């Protein structure tokens, strides 16, 4: 379509602005031939390569320069075939590298200058030739600029794709690491329950005949402990996919929980973050896994505030006990630059999301409307536990 438009425009200009028309307008032209069929066919031949300019830009330009040179040599004048030459030069600069595009520019300039010297004299003189040469250079520069912009955009897209893949890989690694850590921690929880059940079963067997009431109490304790252990194990099986047998020698010390939050708050104060702890509602015993998840959430939230909230910020930890839910919230009033745009989720917050999802909770992470940042989780408690 573009080749047809260029050919039609060139033939129209060729037919309208012959020597007689130029002479009537006061532009003396010496030695220019009258428009005829041969000149029109040469113009069409010069415009035809435009159709393949994207696939073979340099070859198309060379093919277009042949009829243009013939037009100049036969005395038809210059300028009528320059429309096709401009389009082809622009295509070479756009679709080929620097060396090839420079070669195309030099070839186009040499062809034009040769035609200007050998063709009929024009009234414009040397100034017209200089202007035309500058136009060719400007067209070449516009094509190079477009090529560089396209290359830059492609590089940005490729970089964004690489960053997205790297982010996905980091997220998977963080989740796998956090799941492995959860497996080690909950291994201790389940091992504790099984040990308690074993001791209570042995005690019930010894006093079964002599003290049935005491044996009945031991059996009730075994039942409650077994239910709690089964709840923990069902949660683990639904999430974890890694083998934890290599971690069987993990530390068997007690895991931290909500009871250790005062010490954690004091530690944050010593690190330079003003921190307050508020406990609302009637404290009640929590499942070991939920207790540990609440502690880790507060720990990560305060670490996030310490890193990003800025100097002079204050953090408030709120633990609210409700009949069927534990609400844990960490808020700060930081006003740093990162605060205003939100903080990127790090690996720690990714792990917290895994922990909360493990127990069917709801997690909210983000900036507060009035400034500051919030990490909040609502963990369901079954049967008030």
UniProtKB/TrEMBL annotation:
Transmembrane segments: 73-92, 98-117, 129-146
Molecular function per GO: kinase activity
Protein name: histidine kinase
Domain Histidine kinase: 296-383
Species per Swiss-Prot/TrEMBL record: Nonomuraea monospora
Domain of life: Bacteria
Record InterPro entries: DUF7134, HATPase_C_sf, HATPase_dom, His_kinase_dom, Sensor_HK_TwoCompSys, Sig_transdc_His_kin_sub3_dim/P
Lineage of producing organism: Bacteria, Bacillati, Actinomycetota, Actinomycetes, Streptosporangiales
SUPFAM superfamilies referenced in this protein's UniProt entry, alphabetically: ATPase domain of HSP90 chaperone/DNA topoisomerase II/histidine kinase
């Amino acid at each position: 379509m573009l080749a047809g438009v260029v050919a039609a425009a060139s033939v129209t200009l060729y037919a309208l602005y012959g020597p007689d028309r130029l002479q009537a307008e006061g532009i003396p032209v010496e030695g220019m031939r009258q428009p005829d069929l041969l000149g029109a066919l040469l113009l069409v031949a010069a415009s035809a390569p435009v159709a393949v300019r994207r696939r073979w830009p340099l070859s198309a330009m060379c093919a277009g320069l042949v009829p243009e040179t013939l037009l100049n040599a036969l005395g038809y004048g210059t300028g009528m075939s320059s429309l096709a030459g401009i389009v082809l030069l622009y295509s070479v600069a756009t679709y080929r590298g620097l060396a090839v595009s420079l070669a195309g520019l030099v070839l186009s300039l040499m062809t034009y200058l040769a035609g200007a010297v050998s063709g009929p004299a024009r009234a414009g003189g040397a100034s017209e030739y200089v202007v035309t040469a500058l136009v060719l250079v400007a067209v070449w520069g516009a094509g190079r600029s477009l090529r560089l912009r396209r290359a830059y955009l492609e590089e940005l897209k490729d970089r964004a794709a690489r960053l997205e893949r790297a982010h996905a890989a980091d997220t998977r690694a963080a989740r796998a690491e956090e799941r492995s850590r959860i497996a080690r921690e909950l291994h201790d929880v389940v091992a504790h329950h099984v040990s308690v059940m074993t001791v209570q079963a042995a005690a019930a067997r010894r006093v079964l005949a002599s003290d049935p009431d005491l044996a009945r109490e031991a059996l009730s304790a075994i039942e409650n402990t077994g239910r709690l252990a089964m709840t923990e194990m069902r949660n683990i099986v639904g999430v974890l996919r890694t083998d934890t047998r290599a971690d069987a020698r993990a530390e068997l010390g007690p895991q931290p929980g909500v009871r250790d939050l005062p010490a954690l708050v004091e530690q944050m104060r010593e690190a330079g973050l003003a921190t307050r702890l508020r406990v609302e509602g009637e404290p009640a015993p929590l499942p070991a896994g939920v207790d540990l998840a609440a502690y880790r959430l507060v720990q990560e939230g305060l670490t996030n505030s310490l890193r990003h909230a800025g100097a002079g910020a204050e953090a408030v930890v709120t633990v609210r006990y409700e009949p069927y839910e534990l609400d844990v919230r960490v808020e700060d009033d930081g006003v740093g630059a990162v605060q205003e745009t939100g903080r990127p989720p790090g690996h720690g917050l990714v792990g917290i999301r895994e922990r909360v999802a493990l127990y069917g909770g709801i997690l909210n992470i983000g900036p507060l409307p009035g400034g500051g940042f919030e990490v909040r989780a609502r963990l369901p408690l079954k049967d008030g536990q």
